[in-house]
Give the backbone structure.
Amino acid sequence: MRVLNDVTALNSWRRNQDGIGFVPTMGSLHAGHMALVNKAQQAVDTTLVSIFVNPTQFDQTSDLDSYPQDLKADLAQLEAAGVDAVFTPDSDQIYPNGYRFKITENDLSEQFCGAHRPGHFDGVLTVVMKLLQLVKPDFVLLGEKDYQQLQLIRAMIDEFFLKVKVIACATVRDSDGLALSSRNQRLSPSELNLAPMFYQTLTDDCDLESKRSRLRALGFSVEYLQVYQDRLLAAVHLGDVRLIDNVPWPGE
Ligand code: PAF
């Protein structure tokens, strides 16, 4: 497995590759990321994973500072999975002129997570655009857990006439239903016990108001719980950890 630390190394590796499946990540990899890798490997011969904790998508410095990172363990997992290359740039490589240019979407990005995390989706769309320009993949693999992010990236790809195809993968969950997330590592043992009730409440057969009350009674602080198209999207806080999830919503 090649570890490409900068844009020059990426460019020279890229020149000798054809079809690429690209999995963008912020590291701290779990089975959800590995499912994306696995799907990429089924679609194309060459898989590239990026690991970059993108500072522009964090609306709070404390969240960026506490974002879990373990590059050594990530590289070992990717190597064992047979990934061809890993791109691990630093901030100066991705933002050589600071945050001079950005991509802003003016509709969906202002709702749901975007309403509570100002600038978050500008940061996500900007870094994904930069990574797609650098990697020039045939496929980009994204998880449905970040449903709003997935819809925004799909729309950006269409809007800017990019040739890359999006492959979306279902959310990977623990056996108790908790959606896998790098942030779960920051939950205390008692919060980890409670966290699966988030998904269980979302899938309970009751209306939105009852779900909201049940979550509050359990000890979650509910940021939003709203229907978007055919999904129910939600974000809650447990202590200082923010969890998001989404489930199919059959409609009336
Ligand atoms: O979903 C993530 O891990 C990040 O938002 C992404 C897509 C890698 C961009 O930094």
